[in-house]
Request: fold
Amino acid sequence: MPGIIERYRERLPFAPGDPVVSLQEGSTPLVLAERLSEKAGLEVWLKLEGANPTGSFKDRGMTCAVSAAVREGARAVICASTGNTAASAAAYSAKAGLRGAVIVPEGKIATGKLAQALMHGARVVALRGNFDEALKLVREVVSRHPISLVNSVNEYRIEGQKTAAFEIAEALAGELDALCIPVGNAGNITAYWKGFREAGLEPRMLGFQAAGAAPLVHGRPVEHPETIASAIRIGNPARWEEAMDAMTSSGGAVRAVTDAEILAAYRLLAASEGVFCEPASAASVAGLLVHGAGEDVHRVVCVLTGHGLKDPQTALEHAGAVVPCDPELAAIERAVLE
Ligand code: F0G
Reply:
């Protein structure tokens, strides 16, 4: 499959002949979740965005943001990130031959994401502060230096990420009642809503935030956001109004899920659907199970935004233990069969 710019060029702000920086992102699986469907009492599909090249949905937006930066003659890109944007920006800037700098909250990003950003050769800056402070600072940096900002405040990010809605609309032949999606900086829900409307669909948009980082639910910024779902540990989303508009104009809602509810959904997905996502992604399924999707909803898609391998530490802390064993047949039999 080609990348999303090639696949959807006529619906994206790229002309034939424009430079394209792609790792063949997009075209991710949409999997029917049989056990989850049974549990929720409706048809539940999972959009596996962890299947993108760097393991998260960010690649859809990043191919567009970095391609546009190259078209504009940029030499460097920068972003603030809870981890996935950093990994994606680092990979796509490496592919483009651009310099990349990523600002992340110190000690608060998952190990896999940190490894990715470093391996791709980005300048990784650990800020003694949170994501909201990092975003504010990088906005100031780009106002003073010729560096391209690739956070989702960049319109190209939204354009790229809307293609996930196109894929869902095509795969389900336009039959979709609701979308469940985790909300952090609120770029992705904004992008899906744009994409659905362009595809002629208006599913109920159900956004879920972690209870300790739920500014949209409370209607005011959260100064010290906290959650195990580090990807969505955000207290003042940049796309606040657009996200609220998506939810209100689609008849949807924004709700909170606790860390315990997120972890329960995280384990359920891995153990009974064969899908390993990261904790933030499981907020979509936790939200569906805890709050439901509302009346007259028969078919729902939950967006699983990032791969579980991003955050091995959280997985190991919440999974079963390994079974030690001596190198003898009887011991192996006991270990395997008991
Ligand atoms: N899920 C994952 C795995 C994420 O990494 C993010 C955001 C979201 C959900 C929320 O998406 O911000 O568009 O509402 N991660 C950003 C980052 C903030 O820096 O990687 P959103």
The chain has 15 helices and ten strands. The pocket of F0G is lined by residues 56, 58, 81-85, 152, 182-188, 231-232, 278, 280-281, 305-306 (CB under 6 Å). The mean pLDDT is 98. The chain has two domains: 4-51+158-317, 58-155.
